[in-house]
Amino acid sequence: MSNVEAIAARKSWRDELTGTQWKSFWAAWIGYLLDGFDFVMITLVLTEIGRTFHVGPAATATLVSAAFIARWFGGLLLGAIGDRIGRKEAMVISILLYAGGSVVCAIAPAFWVIFVARVCIGMGMAGEYGSSATYVIESWPARLRNKASGFLISGFSLGAGVTAQVYALIEYLTRGTSAEPHTWRILFALGIIPIALALWLRRALPEAADFVKMREEEAARAAVGETVKKTDMFTMLFARNPKRSIINIVLALTTFGCLIVIYLFKSGVPGLVLALLWVVVAAVMVSFMVQFEGPRWPTGVAVMITVFVAFLYSWPLQALLPTYYRQTLGLASDTASNLVTATSFGAAAGCIMAGFIGDRFGTRKAYWVSLLISEFLVLPVFLVSRGMVHSSVIWVVLLGVFIFVQQMFGQGISGLLPKFISNYFPVEKRAAGLGFSYNVGALGGAIAPVLGIALAGDPATGVGGVLPSSWGLGWTLFILSFVFTAVIIVLIAINFPLRMQKLLRPDHVRPADRMDHVDEELAVSRNPDTIVAS
């Protein structure tokens, strides 16, 4: 019986997972749930925070941006800890950063305190993507790692989906009481409950199997007198060569400065200057990846570009659909909240689906085919007009169904993104490689909604945008989603990171760069980090 037939003969994929592997999954999944909860929650409570501390909308909006300022460094630092000390330790530090930030937000005596806490939360969440995703993927059997990835990311979508309902419940319970002005503090405090559960689950987890194997191999090499160099990202950038370390520290501080200007002071900065600041940030990120990956820099940079485009295709809808529901379609807040929930639940269902089809057909094939299907599903969402949704509740229901299905195939398939990224980095660099590239790519998510509003203009009238006012926000979102989805389909289908590596440094292609499905388990067992000529 062949390897594939033996796999097919097994009773169920669940039989291959131990109780410890499930525990490791749930410990990480809660972190993603919290990220989704926080992502939506902070946007809901900005008005209340501004009222409490007597600051305007421009100031409160910086609380959303604060997390983006530090995410790239959180992915780098906590990913490096995961590669050098262990995935489990990095997971614990990540959730502690998030916990500390949430507690401080709940009791903050001043607005600036919340801002600092939001920076800590951003770093913690960045660490979750690097350490938790790596930990679960490396802990599960090789042939189930698409399920590990997809199931894990579903936590974000579910967290985002329930937030509006939790907010509405807390608001209802506190209305007319002395606690009403403190609704936002209660929401931050509620997040501490799942945080405590996550910490409890993570306290006694074993280290990821791949990491343990790597450490054993390093110990064996050291025992015979071979020098084992530290290859974690922080050491390579900031602690190996004194001259290079000083330069990189200056570059890192410059990046922080650029992002602070971009996110906090952009209203008073000319567009050309903002564009130049983005160029500086991009150049530093590429420089850090090149230093980290060495001769495999084409793969690292190509992965960052792919993730960046993935955020550009998904975040116009993620960030601006609530605005589209309320201002463009003119729906009541409760109806818009229900549609946001349908949007998030569709993405969560898609993440689960992604795990199954990824393991069945291969990561890349499942990814790009699902996105291709989503291209045909995005148009019906924006064919439902303002007049339709106000003429009959049936159109509102249909809109909910359309967006649920579209998000299943469009956003949900991005549950495979951690698995996709992890293939391109060896075990000793995987946590930082995944965490850094993912969180640098997340900057595309920050650009996408700004780009959407710049093109569409006023969400209600369409006035003031680059595109004709008759197009409105709806058709702008359709164009952005369709175009960037088409780009990411091509990048994934052609295996852009592998093609870049073969083009620029073909002597450092790894077998894992090529594998996608059936041969994966065999390739991993034979040593996925071997360098082979193209």
TrEMBL record:
Domain of life: Bacteria
Protein name in UniProt: MFS transporter
Main location per the UniProt record: membrane
Membrane topology value: Multi-pass membrane protein
Gene3D superfamilies: MFS general substrate transporter like domains
Compartment annotation: Cell membrane
GO cellular component term of the entry, any: plasma membrane
Keywords, alphabetical: Membrane, Transmembrane, Transmembrane helix
Major facilitator superfamily (MFS) profile domain residues: 24-500
Transmembrane domains' residue ranges: 26-46, 58-81, 93-115, 151-170, 182-201, 246-265, 271-290, 297-315, 335-357, 366-386, 392-410, 431-455, 475-496
Gene Ontology molecular function, alphabetical: carboxylic acid transmembrane transporter activity
